[in-house]
């Protein structure tokens, strides 16, 4: 019995591709002259990144006082940005690990770029807690190393320490997984280069001398499987532990049991939004429309709708249970979010994350590139505001009304935030130029079953089924 | 295309199951009844092992074990009363603290802190044990409909041959609803402490300021309105599913398949945003009306879902044995086994998230939920954790065990039993703080399982085509190989 796929499903590779054509289509983006557009974008991104580094330097020299952090809002923009970036870094692993388990073939078109994005987002995220420490030269204190500080050890009961382990594990496994996937594709790029040239040599090293022996594939598949197995719990654990940073406290608005699963859903939500933002541009600029089709976009939009609704259900649950709890502090925290001076941020969050994705119930809008791009931006903004709402509106009016204070960011923290955007974009642009943006080997693996030419045979197979005959009517 | 015939032998076996359940129930009645008699000799009707309880309990459990203490004794035990007042959620109100303590003292001797009626009577045990089983089965039914919707909406192909099993399990929703409506109509005061009118009367000694603040939501009228709305939604969705999948057998068309995806979208939306959260708050969380947890709805749904997949596994194995479902093989069972494994882990994730966060923050209003369960049902509480997580986790981890009929069917029984314990712990401990577990509940479980299986098999006979062979994605299911 051979595998069968219903021709009702949209093809995932269009343009009647051959093996060779797939290789050429993807490798061509790493060869040839550098496009001026790419160069300009990279230079701008690098400049923004440089400004971010300058702001970080400023903060290191003059201290945390250069930020708007104050006596109640100690976490402010910094941790908002941290959680935002970590959330964005979720889509890659979800696509590579969880969607693999669910046998979603469309993942092959976007997994490579999503994984790359994951790694770059985690790099950006990691900067924030490190520089929040103030005395950044003591950052190694977070690691439980044998030391000369006597009985002074890390607090193993603190979720902040769990974060260190969770994020560093996530980063290493994601990096390994991404790189493992790249190895055969580096081999492909090398084989397209002139043997002995510098390009050939570099890609040869990057591919660890891959020659595509059966033994290589066998080991590669075992390793991929093990890493997929490790990644699956990591998708859940990282943002769960980030949510513990908040939920283990007794701060009203933070201490709520739904926070772990809803943070995970929110992370996937924002991660997919960022994947869409980047890939909608990349597929156009790099001529990848045959590999990242409208069907891919529609599937990702469905995930946006699903996770956005999950997040929305959690918002409404929190709101209701805050009232239902009968605890005046919980009630105030939420009343203040919805009606207080920062209510605009709360309603921005509600609108962007809960209401706006509901447009994707419409098939027409799910398949509209322009609308999808717009929505992905809206969701990115909404998810940033979600973290802002959680952090700032829970803290700026704490238990002691005499310490109530407004929160205003300074140019330094805004600069660092914008700078991480520059770092992220610079890394992504470099990746898109030198690495295969679509996983060549994985896309080839679905060609014969989900490619457009496979559909013809599949139609042939089902032509006698009564149910398919009704399609013509 | 095949149909299921409900053989006389199966009917007989189910009848025997029901009888066994009733015998267990009778045994439970004898044991619990005799215990109950000794209660009556004691003025306050409770035989809490005070020392044992206080070993596990923090101050919050004081409210539970105080039931065995006479009023005068409590009046002299001021430290106890202070601890009790501190533990009480009523301290949120801006009131004189001494008045709070007095109020607490007055309510002692009755049911816990928002005392109204004496707890742990035989009637309490019977009603809550029955309710726990029915609520459990309702969530299994809802989970079946939800999974049917989720797999349809996600354009799943592998499960097509088994979708009628999901539908048959979902078809038990009306049974659960009927029993629940009868229970609510006749015994609301037993299950739901908040339903007593005098709790909201400031002149009454039982006045409960905290519950008063929730009265806009927690009131009998609102409860009935919401229950009727969400029962109707569930029944309506079930009707549409039943109609759609059955007309697909008779008159297959792509249009019907597209309609089924529409129904699936509506099901996901209405169950996830309506029936599940509101139902859980009303039918389960409000049993302990002072306590709250935002995660509760997802937690109970995970329990229902993993039990539903286990039941599906058992039904597949049974139907295969009877010669039905010819195209279902170890690949399909492997996938169902994966869901048993995955949702067990997911349930544990939710259990841990809820438990750890409340344990870590250590706020008495929240920890009282776990304190009560640990104090009265220590072995059951942690035992069910072991059975819900560790046992299926280690057993079903291997590929071979997910494909083995013996391993999966044993695990299916273990998971269903363990999640019944979970539902027991959701419903019973609040009304019967100790000693509520036994043959009584197991009797209900076995007898009602017989009734529900009867209903499921009866539903299966109604399908013209058990494996949905006219479905457009049927070929994918037949050629499913992993």
Describe, in plain words, how this protein is organized in 3D.
The complex is a heterodimer of chains A (473) and B (482). By secondary structure, chain A is an all-alpha fold. Chain A has a single domain (19-143, 156-444), classed as Formate dehydrogenase/DMSO reductase domain (Formate dehydrogenase/DMSO reductase fold, Up-down Bundle), CATH 1.20.1630. Helices cover 69% and strands 0% of the residues of chain A. Chain A has 18 helices and no strands. The longest helix of chain A has 34 residues, at 159-192. Chain A starts with 18 loop residues before the first helix and ends with a helix. The model of chain A has no long low-confidence stretch (mean pLDDT 91). By secondary structure, chain B is mainly alpha-helical. Helix content of chain B is 72%, strand content 0%. Chain B contains 20 helices and no strands. In chain B, α7 (122-153) packs antiparallel against α12 (254-284), α7 crosses α13 (296-321) and α7 (122-153) packs across α18. Chain B starts with 7 loop residues before the first helix and ends with a helix. The model of chain B is unreliable at 36-95 and 105-115 (pLDDT under 50). At the A-B interface, α8, α9, α10 and α18 of A face α12, α13, α14 and α20 of B.
What's the arrangement of secondary structure elements?
The complex is a heterodimer of chains A (473) and B (482).
Chain A lengths: L18 H9 L8 H27 L13 H13 L2 H11 L5 H26 L26 H34 L5 H9 L7 H34 L11 H27 L8 H32 L2 H12 L3 H13 L7 H4 L2 H27 L15 H24 L5 H11 L1 H11 L3 H4 L4
Helix pairs in contact in A: 1-16, 2-15, 3-5, 3-9, 3-14, 4-5, 4-8, 5-6, 5-9, 5-15, 6-7, 6-8, 8-9, 9-10, 9-14, 10-11, 10-12, 11-12, 12-14, 16-17
Chain B lengths: L7 H34 L8 H7 L5 H4 L5 H6 L1 H10 L9 H11 L14 H32 L9 H8 L2 H19 L17 H5 L6 H31 L3 H31 L11 H26 L8 H32 L2 H13 L1 H19 L2 H4 L2 H27 L7 H23 L12 H5 L4
Helix pairs in contact in B: 1-19, 2-15, 5-6, 7-8, 7-9, 7-12, 7-13, 7-18, 7-19, 8-19, 11-12, 12-13, 13-14, 13-18, 14-16, 14-18, 15-16, 16-18
